[in-house]
Amino acid sequence: MLRGRNWIIITLVALVCTAGWDTSSVSGYSGFAIGQADSSRAQSPAERAQPPVTAEANALKLEQQAETLYGFVTEGNINKARVTMDAISRLFVQSSFDGLTSVEGVNALSGAIIDMKAVVAEVSMQQERWEASAARLRLAANSLAHPRQPMWLQYYKLIREDLNDMEQSAAKSDMTGWRTAVARIQERYDTIRPAVIIARKPEEVNRFDAWLSYAAGLVSGSRPPEREELMNAVSHGREAARVMFGKEKDEPALSLPLAPREYGLAGWLGAGFILAALFYTAYRKYRGEKSRWQLF
C-alpha cells in the first residue's frame, strides 16, 4: 500500500515538472517571436532600402539655410537669425562633405560658421558686421553646393576695376589712391576668401594672399616705391587674380602711359640747342641746293 502511494506521488511530481517545462518553452518562444516582430516594425523594408544622404544633398541643405539666414540678417530679424544659425551649426556637425572640398575647404567653412555664431551672440547688433559675416557664410555654402559656377566668381569684375584704379594711382605716383584701391580689394577678398578656399587649390589661394600683402606693404615702408615697381605689382596682381578666378589669359593690353618726367631748365636748353642745330643744317642744305640749280 505504501509502495503504491509512492508511485502516485512520483507520477504527480513528474507531471508537474513536465507542465512547467512546456509552459516556459511556450512563453520563451512567444517572447522571441514578439521580439522579432518588434524588430521588423522598428525598420520596415522601405526604410532599409532608403539610400543614405549624400554629401551633395547636405551641401544643398546648408546653402538653403545660409540663404535663409542672410535674408533674416538683411531684414534685421535678430531672433530668427539666431534660430537659423543654431540650425546651421547642427546641420554642419551632423553632415559629411566628403569629396566636395579639401580639408582646408572644410576648415574655411567651419571658420565662417564660427565667425557668424560669434556675431549673433553679441548683445548689440552691428548691421554692417552682421551682413558681412552672413554674406561670407552664404558665399562659402554656395561654393560648396555649386563648385562649377559659384557666386563668388562675380567678384572678378570688381577686383579688376580696383586693379585698374591701382594702375592709375601708380602712373601718377598717387600713394593715397593706391592705399584706397588696395583696401577695397582687401575688403572684397575677405568676403569671398572662405568660398575661394573651398573651390581652389591652396597654392592659388596662397599666391593671391602673398600678392595682396605685398601690395599693401609697398606704401608702408620707409622708402617710397618707384613707379615701375608699382606698375609691376599691378601686373602681378592681375595674373594672380586671373588664376584664382579661373579666367583665360588675356591678350596683352597697353598699360597706362607714365606721367612725363620734369627735365628742368638744363633739359629744355639742351633740347632747344639740338633743334636749332637741326634747323641750321636744313637751311644750309636748302641754300646749297638752290645755288647749284641757279648755275644751270
From TrEMBL:
The UniProt record lists the keyword Membrane: yes
Taxonomy of the source species: Bacteria, Bacillati, Bacillota, Bacilli, Bacillales
InterPro entries: Spore_YpjB
Pfam families in the cross-refs: Spore_YpjB
The species this protein was found in: Paenibacillus durus ATCC 35681
Membrane spanning stretches: 263-283
Name of the protein in its database record: Sporulation protein
Keywords assigned by UniProt, alphabetized: Membrane, Transmembrane, Transmembrane helix
The UniProt record lists the keyword Transmembrane helix: yes
Taxonomy, superkingdom: Bacteria
